[in-house]
Design brief:
- The chain has one domain (2-276).
- A hairpin with a 6-residue loop joins strand 9 (206-224) and strand 10 (231-237).
- By secondary structure, it is of the alpha+beta class.
- The radius of gyration is 20 Å and the shape is elongated.
- It is built from 3 helices and 13 strands.
Length: 277
């Protein structure tokens, strides 16, 4: 378990929250007042919230009673289209980079932090069940950064089997609710909520699954302008309100592999590897 969490920590920091990225982000957003910071950071709010609400469930099968435990690494990948790499500042007619954009050609506006076509995320997830067809899901990650403080993710959820109440139901159906919170020091906090239905069908080791649900995510920021003249505090809502997903998996006795595509305003490709019984 300790080695697994060390690997997860390394992956999580590599995809965007290592020391150099965090310092660069802190320095960059401190150059923006609220109006233009919104345009600069909105693509991050969209991608981060969409990633957090991905990979929460795959198989809809939940036994009525009996112990099952699954420890997995969930990986999410949000494509960043060209129109999310640039925005037009208030009172200007020219385009400048968002946080996902390249170097800025405008002297008065900062560069993007990540010049990238995608935004990845990786988190550990623990699933434990079941009691009367109900299971619990947990996500947790914490890391202390000397420059910006604690980086922390905490999430929980519950799922209940619907198909157990339908005689001779040919597929597995489950309903779930999930809530998550992520923070970086005292200046960034993200919250994500998801609820929905999942359906799956297992054929030997092959698992086919799909789902639909509603979601909400917010990104709250609190920072001081670079010249120290003003403290800025505001929040951004992620653009995803609903999503559909379809996926495929290989469900062996102790090892499980999954991959799916999430269709929403901010699309997400996700996959996972899990170990359990």
């Amino acid at each position: 378990m300790k080695k697994f969490l060390i690997i997860v920590t390394a992956i999580f920091l590599f995809v965007g929250y290592n020391n150099s990225y965090s310092q660069n982000l802190d320095k960059t957003i401190s150059q923006y007042a609220e109006d233009n910071a919104t345009g600069y950071l909105q693509p991050l709010a969209d991608a981060f919230g969409a990633n957090l609400n991905s990979g929460l469930s795959r198989s809809a099968h939940i036994s009525k009673f009996g112990l099952h435990i699954d420890l997995s690494l969930q990986a999410m990948y949000s494509p960043i289209p060209d129109d999310k790499k640039k925005f037009i500042p208030v009172g200007e007619s020219m385009e400048v980079p968002t946080i996902f954009g390249p170097e800025s050609s405008a002297e008065d506006y900062p560069d993007g932090v990540w010049d990238t076509d995608f935004f990845p995320l990786a988190v550990p997830q623990l699933t434990i069940g079941s009691v009367m067809g109900t299971e619990a899901i947990f996500r947790y990650f914490a890391y202390e950064n000397k420059e910006i403080g604690e980086i922390k993710l905490y999430g929980w959820g519950i799922r209940h089997s619907i198909s157990q109440h339908i005689p001779l139901c040919p597929v597995d159906i489950a309903a779930g609710f999930f809530n998550q919170k992520f923070s970086i020091g005292s200046y960034v906090e993200a919250n994500a909520l998801f609820y929905g239905l999942q359906v799956s069908k297992k054929i030997s080791i092959l698992l086919l699954y799909a789902g639909v649900g509603g979601e909400k995510s917010t990104l709250d920021l609190n920072y001081e302008l670079e010249d120290g003249s003003e403290n800025i505090s505001f929040n951004l809502d992620g653009e995803n309100k609903t999503r559909m997903n379809i996926g495929i998996g290989l469900d062996f006795k102790y090892v499980k592999l999954y991959a799916d595509y999430n269709l929403a305003p901010q699309n997400v490709i996700s996959g996972s590897i899990g170990f359990g019984f």
